[in-house]
Here is the input.
Amino acid sequence: MLLPLMVFICAEPAAVAQDDSYDVFVPIAKYIRQGNAGKLSAWFADNLEVTVISSSNDSSRNQARQIVKAFFDSYTPRSFDITHTAGRSNMKYALGVLNAGGEMFEVTIFVNYSGSGYRIQQLKIDRAR
Here is the structure.
């Protein structure tokens, strides 16, 4: 009797080896641009801080995905561009501008590197001033 072969495919390589040439913000920006909370949440830490339009929450990955999905449902992304990145080897951040739902938003993303790869520790979306 033959047993079925199970293949597991990771949607994105969140557990990428730490490498200065690798830009963790490329796939993250892509999912923000697409308004894809499900794929974006694959990059979330188990617990993270999510701030959306001045409402801040310490959330689990699943709660954060729901918060971001609700934002994308209310404000459909049209474009997202990273304007600045900086950091050290194990902690990086990016600033970006999101055009969504006819409004402009400033986005701040903090990622931390641990043994399993880069994970978003903090995601902040606020109306542009």
